[in-house]
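pls ignore typos typing on phone
pyridoxal-5'-phosphate + seq
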Amino acid sequence: MDRLSDKVKRLPESATLKMARLARELRAQGKDVISLSLGEPDFDTPQHIKEAAIQALRDGYTKYTPVPGLPELVEAIRLKFKRDNGLTFDKDQIVVSNGAKQSIFNISQALLNEGDEAIILTPYWVSYHDIIQMIGGKPVPVRAGIEQDFKVTPQQLEAAITQRTKFVLFSSPCNPTGSVYTQEELEGLAEVIARHQLIVVSDEIYEYINFTGQHASIGTIDAVRDLTVTVNGFAKGFAMTGWRLGYIGAPRWLARACAKIQSQVTSGATAFGQKAGAVALTSDPGPTIAMREAFRRRRDLVIELLSAIPGVKTNHPKGAFYIFPDMQAFFGKSFDGQTIRHSDDLAEYLLREALVATVSGAAFGDPNCIRISYAASEDQLREAIRRMGEALGKLS
Ligand SMILES: Cc1ncc(COP(=O)(O)O)c(C=O)c1O
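k done
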């Protein structure tokens, strides 16, 4: 008897699982695998944030919290949106969640009926696609290649809109490309979104890892002010991936719907984590700035080293901690009887031959590229890219 639901059977297995398994097998054989596949900072949560959680535990923050969040965290988020983004929200427009991923799940669940379409600016973070699909919606990727710095134009967006389009979803700074949309580019997209009265979901979780010195939020643009959900979280900017804490600022009706969904799934986020989150948003940003500067140095190093490998084409990422080189020059080439057809083959080849774990771009909607995370030490990055150059040089 087949007990599993159609819904779970439709759910694809994580594209990174096979690579993770292979890496584990190689490590078990004693091989020195360098992993550049991680989506989390290699820094620890700043000490003062940890202390705040410990103090909160001592103070008895061990109970259920209101589903949309502890009042003091909601207030800290409201002030942060104003201070950092120029976005004005009332407190009932904010919903704290167990991570930005849950926020995106809540939003998708709140907006999509079976068969409704959600446009995802592509390359995209892999979970966007799979969450929308799991819910019964139809993800519609709109793809921008490296020649346009992986950024979708208003014309491309316009062409993908149908009667069934409900929302447009993207991240800037972007995982996996590191690209950052400028204010002007956002205005172009906002004009199309406003004309079609779509919702725009702006995932700004890499906001604090932005090397341009300026973070632009689409929600500040008048035409889409009431159509924008701004998603953010603590995972990347404060190195808090394991804390599971995210949030949204949204139109009131949508915030209410997200809280209703969350109330049936997980309830409010962890009480003492929320107390620490409020401290993170209101205390010295020094550790976050130091982390961003370390990522900037590594970004420069990685671009320099990768650009020296013939055939590897890079953009100049302006945020996050990823680079997404176009590797098409190697497709059709072979080594030892194995021909590289696309990014899946190439990522597997690099793992076996160079002992470097990356992620195939196909997982992010672009099979011409691979994603390299530079959340690793400079020594590891130098050695990994040296090995990659050697392995790529063997392909003919
Ligand atoms: C673009 C993007 N959004 C959201 C998330 C998930 O954030 P959280 O850990 O807060 O669920 C990630 C994590 O990799 C991400 O890259």
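The first helix runs from residue 6 to 10. The longest strand covers residues 165-171. more later
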